[in-house]
Design a protein that fits this description.
The complex is a heterodimer of chains A (266) and B (64).
Chain A lengths: L4 E5 L5 E3 L9 H17 L7 H12 L11 E7 L3 E3 L6 E3 L8 E6 L1 E3 L2 H14 L3 E7 L2 H12 L8 E4 L9 E6 L3 E5 L5 E3 L5 E3 L5 E7 L5 E8 L8 H22 L7
Parallel strand pairs in A: 1-8
Antiparallel strand pairs in A: 2-7, 3-6, 4-5, 8-10, 9-10, 11-14, 12-13, 14-15
Helix pairs in contact in A: 1-2
Chain B lengths: L1 E3 L7 H7 L4 E3 L21 E6 H5 L7
Classes of the chains: A alpha+beta (266), B alpha+beta (64).
Chain lengths: 266, 64
C-alpha cells in the first residue's frame, strides 16, 4: 500500500501569542521575549529585596503596568496576594510581594486571534498535500486541533478520523500533534527527558516535545512517527540555541534508533 | 521522524542526526529533482521527514 506522510508548521490555528504575530525572528519580538524570560527568572527568586526588586519594578514599568492600558504582549496573573501595586499618582509601580513564597501568580503571554484567511489557507494547504498521516507543529492544543479538523477540514472533504496532541514544554501554546486517517494506537511523550547542566541542575531536553506516535496501518503494519520542533534561531543567544538544537537532534536520533529499526518490516 | 528542525541540512547542530545510519532525509533523495526548500524564502530547508531505509527504498517521488 501507499501512504503519504507530511509535516507542517501551521503557526497556530486559531489563537497565537501576540508577540509571535510579529514578523518571525524580528528584533522587537526577541527583545520582549528576552524581557519576559528575565522577568520569570527574577520572579522565581525567594527574595525581591535590593537589585531584584528594582529590576522587577523597572521591567513592569517598561511594559506600562502602571498605566490603565498595559502592553499587549503579556500580563501578570495574580491568583493569591499581589506582586505589585500602582502608585496613586500613576507614576509607577511598587513591588509589594517580598519574594516568590509570598504570592501566587505568573507571567502569561497574551493571545490574539489568528487571521481567519490564514487559517482557511492552512486548511487548503492540507487538502492539497493530502497526507494520510500529518505531523503538525505549533498547534494550541488537542481540542483546537479537533475543532480545526471538524470545522475547516471536513467541509473540504479532508477526513482525519484521528488526532492527538499532548501539551509540551512550551508555555506559548505551540505544541506538536498528529492528524491521521489511521488509528493512533499509542503515544509516548518525551517532555520529561532531561540533561544535567554545568550547575548540576536538570533541565528538559525538548523545548516542546519529541512525541512518539504509534500508528496502526491497514494490514497489521505499524508506522512510528516522531514529531518534533527543535529550538529556533530567532530568540536569545545563538550559540546557546545551537547547543539546545543539537542536544534535541541527538536525543531524537537516539529515540528513533530504539523505535524504528526493530520494526522495519516493510 | 518529522517536524520543524529550525536549521539547514548543512548545519552543525543537525549533523549528527542527519548522519544517523539508516535514517534518510526524503528531500535529499536522488528520486527528486528541482529546488529543495520548505521555508518562506524558497531557499532554505528547515522542515524534515527522515525515514528508515525500508521506507526510503519505497519512496515515491511525489513530494510537495
Amino acid at each position: 500500500m501507499t501512504i503519504r506522510i507530511g509535516t507542517y508548521n501551521v503557526n497556530n490555528l486559531f489563537e497565537r501569542a501576540a508577540i509571535m504575530q510579529l514578523e518571525g525572528f524580528s528584533p522587537d519580538s526577541a527583545a520582549v521575549l528576552q524581557d519576559v524570560q528575565r522577568l520569570n527568572e527574577l520572579l522565581a527568586k525567594d527574595s525581591y529585596s535590593g537589585a531584584t526588586g528594582t529590576e522587577i519594578k523597572a521591567l513592569l514599568e517598561k511594559y506600562d503596568f502602571h498605566k490603565s492600558k498595559p502592553n499587549r504582549w503579556f500580563t501578570i496573573n495574580e491568583i493569591r496576594n499581589k506582586l505589585f501595586s500602582v502608585k496613586q499618582d500613576g507614576s509607577g509601580v511598587t513591588i509589594v510581594a517580598k519574594g516568590r513564597p509570598s504570592w501566587l501568580g505568573w507571567v502569561e503571554l497574551l493571545r490574539e486571534g489568528v487571521n481567519e484567511i490564514s487559517t482557511q489557507n492552512t486548511a487548503q494547504v492540507m487538502k492539497a498535500v493530502a497526507a494520510d498521516v500529518l505531523c503538525l507543529v505549533e498547534v494550541e492544543d488537542r481540542l483546537t486541533l479537533d475543532r480545526f479538523n471538524k470545522n475547516l477540514l471536513k467541509p473540504l472533504k479532508v477526513q482525519y478520523a484521528h488526532n492527538l496532541l499532548i501539551d509540551g514544554n512550551d508555555d506559548r501554546g505551540i505544541d506538536v500533534g498528529l492528524l491521521s486517517k489511521f488509528e493512533i494506537r499509542s503515544v509516548r511523550s518525551d517532555i520529561d527527558d532531561t540533561f544535567t547542566a554545568a550547575n548540576h541542575q536538570k533541565f528538559p531536553i525538548f523545548s516542546r516535545d519529541c512525541a512518539e506516535y504509534e500508528v496502526a496501518l491497514p494490514g497489521g503494519k505499524t508506522l512510528w512517527i516522531l514529531c518534533n520542533h527543535f529550538k529556533s534561531k530567532g530568540y536569545g543567544n545563538q550559540a546557546s540555541n545551537d547547543t539546545k538544537r543539537k542536544r534535541q537532534a541527538d536525543a531524537s536520533g537516539k529515540s528513533s534508533d530504539g523505535l524504528i529499526w526493530p520494526q522495519s518490516s516493510w | 521522524m518529522a517536524g520543524d528542525f529550525n536549521d539547514a541540512p548543512t548545519s552543525q547542530p543537525l549533523a549528527g542526526l542527519l548522519a544517523t545510519p539508516n535514517l534518510f532525509d526524503v528531500l535529499s533523495s536522488n528520486k527528486l529533482n528541482g529546488a529543495r526548500w520548505t521555508y518562506q524564502d524558497a531557499k532554505d530547508q528547515i522542515d524534515y521527514l527522515l525515514v528508515s531505509k525500508a521506507l526510503n527504498d519505497k519512496l515515491d517521488a511525489d513530494i510537495m
